[in-house]
């Protein structure tokens, strides 16, 4: 039975992505993961239903005829109608809105070709390895994201809930997903731990960390989306068995199956759903922002499947390991490491940016500069971070840069914000972005300050480990950003 909250939100028209196909003997209605087939003769004998499915009449007009009530209620329960626009939404209403949207996203995610390729053994072992370690990275991120929400989240919906969530999740990557098994020949546990996340995996993790700090409702929706996949537990276990048989890795997924059972027993998805079982209200703008952040989490997860699919490297095992510090052992400091690194890549110096994306990146650079300045303790680093903050704050226009069109603009900004806790690394990344894209090139005066700051910071500094890896990761994000034609949805409430 449809909830009162869901009924109160139903609008007049079928969503654009509700498919209605008339064939010789069947009328097939499909939306997300749901499908129903009706006899064509039955539909044609009821003009009110035929007109509704042809989108010639509204939901309200259909309900004037009792003959259509059952089908209208069924379509409403599956989320097939658009939602009405309100100024405020209760958390219960938000759940009613989000559930069908969540189903749409699952349908898209599980329709990706990578699943069939892995299922049928058509992916090579490097692709399989990338998928396995991506899952390890997602598990590893769960605990730290929950901890970030509990420690730094704004107006936290339930600090106690996410504290407990962090304590339950932080060790799962070690116990269930670390892949410490001889079945992966030539891949050690240390290799898994140090494997550099794929660009989209990194973008997802850093997005979730930033959302945990700034958008409690967005964090809740992302977590609810992830944990609700437990509904596919049986299909997942079947999939794991098939993959074990295809790649002769019997038993590899035993711990994954154990983790699924833990989630079932603990009711993680239900616990998150209960946080939404509230009459508390939020403004429409807050909900739109949360939905946008949830969509971005979904988007980066889908892009991760694209990245995994690209990890074809022949028969030899290929590991995305950190850039060795030995690569810079003859360099006296981080500035030399940066300039050395710059000589290894070729990027278009005149990339064309949409105004809104450029404004968003400038604002993001400004925010990350103040964040880095807040973490700086060394004199020269303070001066350098302050110089960058001064430079970009003159051009930042927050009111014009809330919503980038290119999702990867956000990924780059998040990477800079997350790196800001180590000012030396952040200064390198900011300099690198300026070298890659002339729109963000720093003035000679600021570059001189950065050079001075980095000359006092050795490459092997334990306070800023692996800065060369961070540079490589930023390069990968820039490549994805320059190559992406994807756009952020304009509005999610009306989808």
Measured between the Cα atoms of the first and last residue, the distance is 23 Å
CATH topology of the largest domain: Heme Oxygenase, Chain A
Helix content: 55-70%
Please count the helical segments: 24
Nearest-angstrom radius of gyration? Answer: 25 Å
CATH architecture of the largest domain: Up-down Bundle
Q: Outline the low-pLDDT stretches.
A: none
Strand content: 5-15%
Largest sheet: 3 strands, antiparallel
Which shape, going by the Cα principal axes? Answer: globular
**Order of adjacent strands in the largest pleated sheet:** 2-3-4
Give the CATH H-level superfamily of the largest domain: Heme oxygenase-like
Explain briefly what this protein structure is.
This protein has 24 helices and 7 strands.
How is this structure best described in words?
42% of the residues are buried. The radius of gyration is 25 Å and the shape is globular. It has three domains: 4-83; 88-309, Heme Oxygenase, Chain A (Up-down Bundle), CATH 1.20.910.10; 325-483. A three-stranded antiparallel beta sheet has the order 2-3-4. The mean pLDDT is 88. Helix 8 (125-152) packs antiparallel against helix 9, helix 8 (125-152) runs parallel beside helix 12 (199-214) and helix 19 runs parallel beside helix 21 (407-419). The chain is mostly helical. The longest helix is centred in the first third of the chain and has 28 residues, at 125-152. A hairpin with a 2-residue loop joins strand 3 (26-31) and strand 4. The protein has helices at residues 4-9, 40-44, 47-53, 59-63, 69-77, 91-110, 113-119, 125-152, 159-169, 172-176, 189-194, 199-214, 216-227, 233-247, 254-266, 268-275, 284-309, 334-342, 355-375, 379-393, 407-419, 423-436, 444-455, 467-483; strands spanning 10-14, 19-22, 26-31, 34-39, 81-83, 88-90, 281-283.
């Amino acid at each position: 039975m449809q909830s009162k909250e869901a009924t109160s939100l139903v609008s007049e028209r079928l969503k654009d992505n509700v498919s209605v196909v008339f064939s010789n003997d069947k009328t097939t209605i499909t939306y997300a993961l749901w499908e129903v087939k009706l006899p064509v003769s039955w539909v044609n004998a009821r003009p009110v239903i035929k007109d509704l499915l042809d989108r010639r009449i509204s939901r309200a007009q259909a309900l004037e005829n009792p003959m259509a009530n059952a089908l209208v209620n069924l379509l409403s329960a599956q989320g097939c109608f658009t939602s009405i626009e309100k100024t405020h939404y209760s958390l219960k209403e938000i759940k009613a809105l989000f559930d069908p949207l969540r189903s749409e996203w699952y349908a898209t995610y599980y329709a990706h070709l990578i699943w069939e390729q892995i299922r049928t053994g058509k992916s090579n072992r490097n692709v399989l390895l990338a998928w396995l370690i991506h899952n390890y990275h997602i598990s590893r991120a769960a605990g730290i994201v929950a901890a970030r929400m509990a420690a730094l989240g704004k107006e936290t919906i339930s600090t106690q809930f996410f504290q407990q969530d962090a304590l339950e999740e932080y060790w799962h990557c070690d116990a269930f997903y670390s892949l410490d098994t001889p079945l992966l020949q030539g891949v050690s546990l240390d290799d898994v731990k140090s494997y550099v996340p794929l660009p989209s995996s990194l973008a997802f993790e850093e997005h979730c960390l930033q959302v945990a700090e700034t958008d409690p409702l967005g964090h809740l929706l992302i977590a609810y989306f992830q944990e609700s996949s437990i509904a596919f537990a049986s299909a997942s276990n079947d999939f794991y068995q098939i993959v074990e048989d295809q790649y002769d890795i019997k038993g590899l997924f035993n711990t994954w199956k154990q983790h699924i059972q833990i989630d079932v027993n603990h009711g993680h998805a239900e616990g998150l759903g209960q946080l939404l079982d509230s009459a508390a209200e939020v403004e429409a703008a807050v909900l739109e922002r949360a939905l946008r952040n949830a969509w971005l989490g979904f988007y980066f997860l889908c892009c991760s499947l694209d990245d995994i699919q690209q990890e074809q490297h022949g028969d030899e095992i290929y590991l995305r390991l950190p850039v060795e510090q030995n690569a810079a052992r003859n360099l006296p400091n981080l500035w030399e490491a940066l300039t050395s690194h710059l000589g290894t890549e070729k990027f278009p110096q005149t990339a064309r940016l949409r105004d809104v994306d450029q404004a968003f990146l400038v604002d993001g650079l400004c925010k990350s500069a103040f964040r880095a300045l807040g973490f700086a303790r060394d004199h020269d680093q303070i001066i350098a971070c302050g110089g960058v903050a001064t430079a970009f704050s003159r051009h930042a226009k927050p009111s014009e840069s809330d919503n980038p069109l290119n999702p990867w603009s956000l990924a780059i900004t998040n990477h800079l914000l997350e790196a800001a806790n180590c000012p030396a690394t952040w200064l390198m990344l900011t300099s690198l972005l300026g070298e890659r894209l002339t729109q963000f090139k720093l003035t000679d005066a600021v570059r001189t300050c950065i050079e001075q700051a980095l000359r006092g910071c050795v490459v092997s500094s334990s306070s800023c480990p692996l800065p060369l890896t961070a540079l490589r990761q930023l390069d990968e994000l820039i490549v994805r950003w320059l190559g992406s034609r994807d756009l952020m949805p304009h509005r999610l409430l009306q989808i």
